Amino acid sequence: MSTQIWIYFFVILTFGLYIGIAVWARAGSTKDFYVASGGVHPVTNGMAIAADWMSAASFISMAGLVAFMGYGGSVFLMGWTGGFVLLATLLAPYLRKFGRYTVPDFFRTRYYSRAATAVAVLCLLIASLTYIIGQMTGVGVAFSRFLQVSNTVGILIGMIVVFFYAVWGGMKGITYTQVAQYLVMIIAYTIPAIFIAFQITGNPIPQLGLWSGYEETSAFLLEKLDSVVKGLGFNEYTTYFRLSKTNMFFYTLSLMIGTAGLPHVIMRFFTVAKVKDARLSAGWALLFIAVLYTTCPAVASMARLNLHATVNKATLQDNGDFFAPGNSLVYEDRPQWMKNWEITGLLSWEDKNNDGRIQYYNAGTSNQSILDKAAAAGWEGNELTVNRDIIVLANPEIAKLPGWVIGLVAAGGLAAALSTAAGLLLAISSAISHDLIKGMIKPDMSEKGELMAGRIAMALSVLFAAYLGLNPPDFAAGTVAIAFGLAASSLFPALMMGIFSKTMNKEGAIAGMLAGIGFTMIYVFAHKGFFFIPGTEFLGLFGGKPNFIFGIEPNAIGAVGAIINFAAAFIVKNMTQKVPDDIAEMVENIRYPKGSGEARGH
383, exposed or middle or buried, with CB in 10 Å at 0-12, 13-18, 19+? Predict the structure, then answer.
């Protein structure tokens, strides 16, 4: 069969599987809809958590980031993985002890306040909606290439599929669908990696292939990659780190505590029967995630090297001269994978010196020797633009793998985006139906009415997510990291203080959340130039210059927002009334999470 037929086969097969599971696991009660009846096995839940967590950012974008950033891309591997350790040790067992349905549910009980619940819902919606923009981008990228449809049609198809299994099945349907999606994702990610590792290093284990010999050369793969990128004026792959130490620290911390504060991931720990199962779920999730995360550096490195091998023919030689005549690719002879991705606009070529060849190098390098060589060869600037998001999806095509492998990768990329989108949509809809409508507007609503409200809220959330995907805001670039910063600066500190501080009151929690998320949003939007406060330019604030607080980037500012959240909460707490005695007693009970009972309080 042709590659395109394989793609259609795997995509239709997996989409049919997701919808079939949703029909089989249809939610019949609010407990089914919100927490899958609270009886999911830890292994099953761990796999579902892994799928919920490994979004389009992990499957599609992360390897692309590592491929072009090299060692610097490790910030994502460390931050996101470390966040799960925090979640497993500091939040999951204690939140399960609470026995609630949603994150705002925790705030309503712990902080004995409708206002605290409303602020928590607001923070949840801001973080989740920001995050879902990235998932819609992933759906558009995958569909536009593999199903040969426009970005608009791709997003609409994706949303229709999510609509069926999320609205119909709720958390129960999403749980088992995500198990299937994890299996699709991990198979789609590792099989091409095994093929390519064996193809270019002779070692079928991708993680070990990094330190194996590269084809017929005498160098190891990473040594060869370092040599190639340096020879073309790029930064050394294995040592260069773009971020300063300050940015590195705050970026990693922001990703870590943002991970631990993501509501759609936290909700998964409410689906198990016991506190022990919550801990086990986190452990299994880490194991399942590690399969992809340890494979990612190998996929990124091999993809980067294969890309250069395609465009810069001297890559295959031990001491090749990249700038010698004939060592660049003739545009008319470009391989089919480049033609396929050119259609999407995610790969483009501009013939700056009119020689009909593709020149791919770092024209902005400070290495004068590289610039001199390029000038002597008649090169007038880099001519190839490659979007980082295509690396994983294009990798099997670059390596000339069989059509069925390419079809499998297409299904995996779509599964990654849809699995997280479903989890986010459930978090959004449950916050609206359970926490706002049932919890604050109409407390006497029947279970049947609440289930209907949940489905309607889910349907509206799907439509709104589709709208965001089709009309992304101006700050869409980097939205995933920004979403983590928003969760880090708002929800995580309030959750931590709610569990470990018996004295934190509702006024402190509300002030902390508003201060944290307010500061983070102002910093991000001011950096993007959305507004400017006159008279502050002498301080370098709010548009005066980029990264105006200690040089910290917007994607890393969430950790600073969390510090502000903690500080504001404790200052306001000390100025207001103390926590009621029954709440303090409840917190004491939560801090010893044994058994499967439910914490009691208001």
Answer: buried
The domain spans of the chain are: 3-305+398-590, 347-386
Phi and psi of 129, rounded to 5°? -70, -35
Among 63, 318, 381, 84, which residue's Cα sits nearest to residue 206?
63
Q: What's the pLDDT score for residue 295? A: 92
pLDDT level of residue 530 (50, 70, 90 thresholds): very low
- Find all residues with CB under 8 Å of 265, minimum gap 6, and list them: 49, 52, 53, 87, 259, 423
Q: Please say whether the beta carbons of 241 and 66 come within 8 A.
A: no
Whole-angstrom Cα Rg for the chain:
25
Against a cut of 0.70, is the pTM above it?
Answer: yes
SS3 602: coil
Q: Which residues, other chains included, contact 152 with Cβ-Cβ below 8 Å and sequence gap of 6+? A: 470
Q: Provide CATH code, domain 3-305+398-590.
A: 1.20.1730.10
How far apart are alpha carbons 44 and 27 in whole angstroms?
17
Query: Which pair of tokens denotes residue 323?
Result: 């700038």
- Taking a C-beta distance cutoff of 8 angstroms, is the pair 252, 78 a contact? yes
Lowest mean pLDDT of 27-31, 129-133, 299-303, name the range.
Answer: 27-31
Which DSSP helix (H) or strand (E) runs through 358?
strand 357-358
- Residue (of 232, 299, 240) closest to 64 by Cα position: 299
Taking alpha carbons only, the member of 207, 210, 213, 237 closest to residue 225 is 237
Find tokens 């950790």 and name the residue.
559
Q: Which two tokens stand for residue 375?
A: 């000038």
Distance from the Cα of residue 49 to its chain's centroid: 13
